Amino acid sequence: MLVLSRKLNxxxxxxxxxxxxxxxxxxxxxxxxxxAPRDVEIHRQEVYDAIQKENNEAANLSKDLIDLFxxxxxxx
Length: 76
Prior knowledge:
Elements: E1 11-14, E2 18-26, E3 29-35, H1 45-75
Antiparallel strand pairs: 1-2, 2-3
């Protein structure tokens, strides 16, 4: 992990297309501005984790349904 120090209004550049700027510092909370192409998804970690969990559950449900259909139509 790369650890960088930034002050208010300073920016970090990621690749050619992404910039992260420190917009405000309020106590223990930092507000960041992220400039990135529209096709780049940006999520807070807890939101990303929830999306991954839902995707995994949907994939498992799809697999379970396919297995159920296979069993039903195999016996017919």
